[in-house]
# Entry
Amino acid sequence: MSCILHIETSTDVCSVAVSQDGACIFNKEDFSGPNHAERLGEYVDEALSFADSHAIPVDAVAVSSGPGSYTGLRIGVSMAKGICYGRNVPLLGIPTLELLCVPVLLGHDEMEDDALLCPMLDARRMEVYAGVFDRALKPVREIRADIVEADTYKEFLDSHPVYFFGNGAAKCMETIKHPNARFIDKIVPLAKNMFPLAEKKMARGEKEDVAYFVPFYLKDFVAKTPNKML
# Structure
């Protein structure tokens, strides 16, 4: 197992955590944002000071790789790269939509075995950026921008319970009325939930090139799709 510093800035929430041997040992969160420029440096300093004061060497830095806020991701990735260069440790990119699934999988024991997960990020109007995963986080449908209508996810809802969550899900509740649709509120990407995904990447040796790593900005995807606006 490893000691990993986790940085999450893909939405208005700013959070930093440290995990060791698969357990969270430090966590700071700010839900009043977006305050990433003000809070992130302070939280990272506290996290690193905590690890150093307990003689725990940081083995890697994990950061949200998007999609998400351009400004938030840029600040988070810049901070993560600086730490990786300064401490000579690897960088781990954690997909934001997969990260959103972690608290749902850990916190809903009653979920059906054949359930599908549909994390959503708000892309303004009735548009969301979403993916569809099974309970093992295996992609069932590619991640893309969706215009949410009553039948947008019908092919999945007709055969599976589908759990919708993330900051794009609330506006879908009045549109998607299928009996297999389940909505979970108050699910946001947080650093303290990154460690299962980060530990898996460490074990597989899936490290980013620190010099060339660029997060997946939501605005970049929307700009490539006709009639999409952020």
Summary: The longest strand covers residues 139-147. Residues 226-230 have pLDDT under 50 and may be disordered.
